[in-house]
Amino acid sequence: MSRLERYLLRHLLAGVATVALVMAALVIFVNLLGQIENLDDTRFGPLQLLAYVSLRLPAFLFQTIPIAALLGALLGLGSLAAQRELIAMQALGLPMWRMLRVVILAALMIGASAWVLGDVLGPPAESMARQMRDAQRLTGRVARVADQVWLRDANTFVRVDRLLNARLLRGVEILEFADDGALRQVVRAPRAVVEPDGWLLFDAQGTRFDAAGATDFRQPQGVWPLRIEPHLVEVLAVRAETLTLRELWQQKQFLSDNGLESEPFGTLFWTRLVLPVSILPMLLLALPLILGSLRDSSMVRRVVVGVLIGAAYYLINLTFSGGGVVLGLPNWVSAWLPTLALGLFAGWQLRRVQA
What we know:
The chain is built from twelve helices and seven strands. It is an alpha+beta fold.
């Protein structure tokens, strides 16, 4: 890359980084204010509250990084345009295609950062935040170790390897004790479904203990009359936001194979996969705006235009991802359509500037 291209890249990335930092500070501040009202419910101390809000930050930044990229590009390139530096660069022999090369490189770098936020940092951080909240709200009734959950119903203790959703459980072990603390029976089942009158166990096997000794038994299907409140299971169930792309796909396939609702996991999988790609058309759109209608505009106008475009894209993306089922569109089609439309619009704007 030439010195001019490196200079352009630095300004572009600096603008995006500045906007991202400002958004992060605003998110932390707003969430702190919002969570203060729930202090009695969560029983968080000040440091715990700050840790909880900070853990949820990567997921939010991931969702908003396309808007941050557009705003940052408009601010970074806009400062160069306001000082006529872009015109000077073109006069010194920096053609449009080399500017586009810089924009594409910046999009790749920002997209890689978005992937780290969305698939490396975001899911485990979101999972830790939820565990903090659940541990405070459900103290004494529930214990969680990694993905495993322990529940208590009077003298009965239940271990669940994974709560796939509010109804479907994988790897269930039930230990029932007598009032004197003696173990009465142990039941294990690879799969269970939460029903109104108890838990429906599949392929259950276990052992009963009495004065005569131990007796093994098997049961292909049967309802175990557990009185654990359904809302506890719903609160502790696996949330799609805490899963990586690979885990989302596996979860979607598992739920589909068991005839259960898998649409939310499929929708989130494609949305999260496409989001880093949407950064490229956002940055490509910033270039013709700065070279064209926004060249001599104030910073406030550039920010307003960026917010309007970003908000419109976000709403369209949300509409298609949520309404794809209503329209009869597959998940991957409804996820890609807004980004492809934005790319076509950015290409049309570039052609107008070049003409």
